[in-house]
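Table S2 (continued). Query chain:
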Amino acid sequence: MTDWRMENLDSVCEMRPPKSEARRRLSGSEPVSFVPMHDLGVDSMYFEAREQRALKEVEGSYTYFADDDVLLAKITPCFENGKLGIARGLTNGIGFGSSEYFVLRPDRKLLPQFLYYFLSRESFREEGAKVMTGAVGHRRVPKEFIESYAIPLPSVDEQRRVVAMLDQALDGIAKAKRNNEASLANVDQLLDSTRFGLLDEIGSRAEWLTLQELLDRGWILSHLDGNHGSEYPRKEEFVTKGVPYISANCIDDEKVDMSLAKYLLPQRAVRIRKGVAQSGDVLFAHNATVGPVAVLETAEPCVILGTSLTYYRCNRANISPRYLGHYMRSRKFREQYEQIMRQSTRNQVPITKQREFFHLIPNIKDQIKVAAELDTLELKRLSLRELYQRKLVLLNQLKQSLLWKAFSGELTDARGLAA
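Corresponding output:
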C-alpha cells in the first residue's frame, strides 16, 4: 500500500451538508424520505427509506442527507451496534432523519462504499466508544473524533477493486449468517409449536383461571413487582458484592444470568420490603422489554427485583414453577399481554392487568409431565443455539479479518480473501 495516503475524514468528506440544498431544490410541500433510527441497518450497506414526509415538516429539527451520503449513528448503543448505511433511492433524492446521525458526504477522491466498509470495522467502533461523552444512556461520539479520524486512501480505481472483492466475500458471509439465523429461528418455532400442542392436548382436563383466582385459592402465594417507590436504590448505592439486584436484561435464553446482576449492601437491601424474589419464583419482564420469562434458580436467600420484573411465587402442591414458566412463554399467554400493549403507547404490562390474565392449570401430575417434556426440548434448543451462536461469532471474526486486510492493503487478489 505504498501509494496509499492517510487523510482525515473531514478532508475527504463534507460533514453534515447544509439543509439549504434541499430548500433550493424543492418546495416545502414536496415529499422527501424520512429515516428514523430504527430504519438504519446493521450489516447492510444500503438502508430502506420506508417513510415520506413533506419537506416543511422535517426541515426544522431533523438531519438532512441526500443520495450517496453515508449515515452513521452517533449515540449509544446504536454506534457500538454498528448502525451505518449509504443513502440510496431517496424520494426526490433527499432524506431527513434522526438528529443522532453523523452525515458524511465523500468527495470525488473517496467512494461511499469504500467509506462504508472502513466504518464497519469493529476497531473503529471500539475507538469511538472509548471517547464518548454525555450522561449514561445518552453518550455520543464527539464530532471531533469523526472529523479527525484518519482513513487510508488509495486511488479511486484501487478503491473500486477493494470494494468489489469485499462485496463478493462478504456477500458469502452474509448468506451464511442468514442461513444460520434461519436455522436458529426454526428451532425456536419448533419449541413454540410443541409447547402449543402439549397445552392444547391437556386443555380439556384443565381449568382456565385468572391470576387473581389463583391468588384467592392460594395456588399462587405472592405476586409482586420491583416498584420500590422512595426506596429505589440510587446509582452510587450499588456495590460489587452483596445482595443481588436484577432487571429484565438479566433474563437471557429463558434463564436468569446472575453475572449481569448489580448488588446492594445487606444493610441497604433490608430497607426494601417488596419485590424480593427467592429461588423457584417465576419471573416475568413486564416493562420496557416485555415478555421474557425465567424460573429463578439461585443459592442466594433473596434477590431484589428491579422495576422491570414481577415474580410469581407458586404453591408447589398445586402449581409447578417449571410448568408455569413454560405456559407464560406460550402463545396462549403471550396473546393476552400483547393485546394490552396494543391498547397503550407504553411498552409495559401493569401488575394490575397481569392479575386479569388467564392461566391454563391442569392437575399437578399433568403439569410435571408437560414441564419435563418441554424441559428436554428446551435443553436441545439451548445446545443448538450455542452451536449456531458460535458459528455467528466465527463468521463475524472472518468478516473483521477481511476488513482488516482490505484497509492494510493486503487484498492483492482473490486468494487474499481466504487467507
